[in-house]
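Key idea: predict the complex, not the pieces.
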Amino acid sequence: MAAQEADIVFLKNALNKQGECRPCNYLEGPNERMDGCFAYLTELYFLDQKEFKYLFQKVSPFLRKPSNEIGWALRGYFSYLKEDYQEAASAFLEAIALAPENLDNWLDFAFSLRHLGCDEASLKIIFNTKQVMKIMITGPIKNRKTRLIKSIKI
Amino acid sequence: MFETFVPKKFCREFVEARGHSCNVTALMAVVSGYKPCTDVWVRPSDLKSFLKAVRAYGLVVKQNIVFKMSSRHDLADDIVGKNRLTTTIAYGSRPGPQALGNHHLFVARSPEALNRAFALGWYPVIIGKRVIHSPLADAFRFGEALGYPDCCCEFFRSKNNWNRYNFLYEIFKNTPQGSAHYLCNPLGRNETFTYISHMPCAFNCQATVKQAVSFRRFLMKEEPAFIEKIDWHLRLPYLVFYERKIYAFDGKVIPGGIAYKAVYFVGLNNDFNPYLKRLSKANELRIEGKNVILLKDGRKTDCIEYDPLKAALEIPFTVQFGS
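Result:
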């Protein structure tokens, strides 16, 4: 139980830090991935359903209307694990909008698209990450998501 | 031993198209409905004839990316994540006339099975300057999409962690001594002579035996000569270091090791074959802790020492599959 409480505190703290970003995995950076939370939740989901459900129950109120990147990413993780890839893709796209330089969000978005049959868009993100990132980083903030969707032809 | 096998008729086209028989039993299992889907690598020059064979057997196919295989020591230092690459070390590119390497294809009987396996079946691959992994959840679900038994998928999820475990050794530990069943032998699963293409949860996994028995029965009617060869290969004594470093012997298991006349590397990639020459010079091996002692006519001549700095956790063990 102690471990569960610690996990919940960690997740709640992450979610409550309004406007604060999680560490960014820059494209040119040295890390494969910065956020280990997705892999951790995946192991719980498959290997310890009881703890996963407990954790989800505690965190789910915070995921209804996420206010920051972590919240959207977490919503994406939970949706992905439940194989609701449409919801996962939407959540990861929101996370991208808030932190467009974070590669973790982009890859999670790309693999959600792969599950939705949007193979071309998924590959575009994976193989042309820099160019696709530019769409979200540069130009007016307004309509960034729409521009991205148009550009990668989702 | 471990040579290409050309079937008399059934699925012969796949072997002719690719010029080798690796994974042919997986394709046979898909054609005959014993497996929902499989994935294979096909050279650009073989693609046309392979796709023709796919169509001839009424299968559906979907192309993933192109893999240009590489070796660990050829990788540039600045590739992010290169040390975590395990069985497949390759650069990925998008399919097209410019792409260099082997096409990764998914082949299935139904579009549903195909799309599911395709979506889940992303192998870690180098793109640009970094290794791209799909979410872990995909790897955890991929086995189900390929028709692996539930118990084996579960075991994979808990033990297939290259940083913590040697997966084959975990399977070995999960097998009661002396009960390894030849139908559960996965050591040549990427080669020709095998009935299964997955890692079982134990070398006597009953769900795996059940799958293999029915497939073998089917194959017996189609290609009896092939059955004979597969059975023979599966029952050889093996020395296993990890998934890519496996040797088979013309010999017999003795207490603590193997006495042999000849040794063969199981695999096509010689990057993973550093010991063949040394093993060939001896005619007996013994496992002592994590070291392999080599003997010639009863006298110790060499020792393959355990190296904890290797990229994969290597724990040598010997096994011979019976029943």
